[in-house]
Amino acid sequence: MKRYFLPMYSIVFLLAAAAATLCIKTILTAGGGGGADTIFLYPNTPHEETKKTHVFNSTVLQFSAVDLAENSLRQNVEQLVGGNMQGLDKRSFLYAGKHRIDIRARSARGVPVNLRSPEFYRLWLEFRRYLQTWWRNHKFQDDVMSEMANVVRNFKRGFNESDLGGNGKFRTCAVVGNSGILLKSDLGGEIDGNEFVIRLNNARTSGFERNVGSKTSLSFVNSNILHLCARRENCFCHPYGENVPIMMYMCQMIHFLDYVVCNTSHKAPLVITDPRFDVLCARIVKYYSVLRFLRETGKPLELWADSHDGSNFHYSSGMQAVMLAIGMCEKVSIFGFGKLDGAKHHYHTNQKGELHLHDYLAEYDLYQDLVERPEAIPFVSDKFKFPTVVIHR
Ligand SMILES: *[C@@H]1O[C@H](CO)[C@@H](O)[C@H](O)[C@H]1NC(C)=O
Ligand SMILES: *[C@@H]1O[C@H](CO)[C@@H](O)[C@H](O)[C@H]1NC(C)=O
Ligand SMILES: *[C@@H]1O[C@H](CO)[C@@H](O)[C@H](O)[C@H]1NC(C)=O
């Protein structure tokens, strides 16, 4: 790394740090996550054994099954696999670990990036292999939730097999969102009392233990976070300690490069979400967003994209972490999701803004259905048995 690049790196780092809690596919904008006005208070009632059914509107289902970003994603993958990085990143450069690639210098002529060293070339080949595999699997499959139980295998270290529940799932899981409603909640003890605790986007716990707890079994992030970590010595990305596994979903395909660089230096498992699971989550959230749009505006379906930043629309990290827990656990407790007047946006930052990239209200509708009527959740196979879900406020 040449010295005169340092100040520029730090500026970009600061900008990017503000945005890293969001999965942003094409732009970097400072923003926030996490709020709604709804109040949740649900009793802990297990779902009845008798199978309830729900009638779905097939027009809405079909509309929700279309991913408006699919074409640009395909182009992106093809460009990367072809070794051409033109137009991939709005920033003038990127680098993974100590490997710096100057896009600006080369993309103007549209030639493939210069692969500077044999070591980088090896990483590049590995990167392409992961990307191609990921893309091949980037499809809808309705029974992927049942396969989530296999994901548990990645995180079993430190657990006594005989302590796990049926199908080797974790018995009790907490998903801890980052909403300011956690402050003064005194829920730390209750959170830590869960067998498996999932935290989001590296929100720190130190100084907040009383309200957010201190135990972390899995750090769930979006790949923007890893992209930032990749710039640090040994990809340092461990506010919870280096033995805590990290799971992430891919926001930008170029982040696979960060993954191949960081995976070797990471002690605990560094796992990428199954692309079929990503597709499922995208469909579910779009469905809830569309229902809400129809209900609230009375406008025709086709106008949904205009008011939801169409191809940039994305589920939040919190939503996917909740769905992951739904697949891996027998009981899921949700903490720190939602907003109240006067509560901070995030418990650990002073961030105020929200972005239309996510539809948090729609995601809350989903959580409500997880508690009350999971049969109303679309795109999930009937074979999958939903666990008990409790939302703590
Ligand atoms: C399904 O939803 C669409 C879009 O809102 C609506 O036009 C249609 O009437 C609905 N169909 C049924 C059978 O309810
Ligand atoms: C796991 O649990 C079983 C049964 O409670 C116990 O006998 C065994 O020693 C435990 N193993 C470990 C590694 O803690
Ligand atoms: C990441 O590293 C681990 C441990 O070295 C390895 O088992 C795993 O296969 C790697 N990930 C991928 C996707 O190859």
UniProtKB/TrEMBL annotation:
InterPro entries cross-referenced by the UniProt entry: Glyco_trans_29, GT29-like_sf
Pfam families tied to this protein:
Glyco_transf_29 (PF00777)
Picking any one GO molecular function of the record gives: sialyltransferase activity
Q: Name one GO cellular component term.
A: Golgi membrane
Q: Which CDD domains match?
A: GT29
The UniProt entry, under Gene3D superfamilies, shows: Glycosyl transferase family 29
Membrane topology of this protein:
Single-pass type II membrane protein
Q: From the UniProt record, list the coiled-coil ranges.
A: none
Identify the keywords attached in UniProt to this record, alphabetized. Answer: Glycoprotein, Glycosyltransferase, Golgi apparatus, Membrane, Signal-anchor, Transferase, Transmembrane, Transmembrane helix
Per the record, the major location class is Golgi
Where is it localised?
Golgi apparatus membrane
UniProt superkingdom? Eukaryota
Asked if the keyword Nuclease belongs to this entry, the reply reads no
Recorded family membership = Belongs to the glycosyltransferase 29 family.
Name by which UniProt lists this protein: Glycosyl transferase, family 29
What species does this protein belong to? Artemisia annua
